[in-house]
């Protein structure tokens, strides 16, 4: 799992998920997982069939979401590849949402 560098106890990441991740409830289950971890941000389908996640929160909670993806995410999905990048957000998210 990538180690996230941070200057305090919070971090924001963007994840790009590749595989069978659309039409299998991936956004719904990711939303539920992120909410259970008290993360803010969003999950959305991309036009090319991939999924994008932006997640912000306490570092250990962000890392827990990454680990969940690393372990395969929802049982209905088949993740073939993912990447994670730490980001600086220009907008502040107060909750986690599904974007359409």
From TrEMBL:
<feature type="domain" description="Acylphosphatase-like">
    <location>
        <begin position="12"/>
        <end position="100"/>
    </location>
</feature>
<dbReference type="InterPro" id="IPR036046">
    <property type="entry name" value="Acylphosphatase-like_dom_sf"/>
</dbReference>
<protein>
    <recommendedName>
        <fullName>Acylphosphatase</fullName>
        <ecNumber>3.6.1.7</ecNumber>
    </recommendedName>
</protein>
<keyword id="KW-0378">Hydrolase</keyword>
<dbReference type="GO" id="GO:0003998">
    <property type="term" value="F:acylphosphatase activity"/>
</dbReference>
<feature type="active site">
    <location>
        <position position="27"/>
    </location>
</feature>
<dbReference type="Pfam" id="PF00708">
    <property type="entry name" value="Acylphosphatase"/>
</dbReference>
<dbReference type="InterPro" id="IPR001792">
    <property type="entry name" value="Acylphosphatase-like_dom"/>
</dbReference>
<comment type="similarity">
    <text>Belongs to the acylphosphatase family.</text>
</comment>
<dbReference type="InterPro" id="IPR020456">
    <property type="entry name" value="Acylphosphatase"/>
</dbReference>
<dbReference type="InterPro" id="IPR017968">
    <property type="entry name" value="Acylphosphatase_CS"/>
</dbReference>
<feature type="active site">
    <location>
        <position position="45"/>
    </location>
</feature>
């Amino acid at each position: 799992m990538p180690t996230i560098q941070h200057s305090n106890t919070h971090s924001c990441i963007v994840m790009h998920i590749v595989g069978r991740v659309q039409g299998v409830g991936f956004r719904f289950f990711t939303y539920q997982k992120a909410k259970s971890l008290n993360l803010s941000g969003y999950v959305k389908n991309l036009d090319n069939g991939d999924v994008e996640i932006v997640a912000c929160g306490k570092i250990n909670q962000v890392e827990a979401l990454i680990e969940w993806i690393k372990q395969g995410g929802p049982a209905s999905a088949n993740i073939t590849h993912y990447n994670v990048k730490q980001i600086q957000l220009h907008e502040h998210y107060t909750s986690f949402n599904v974007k359409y």
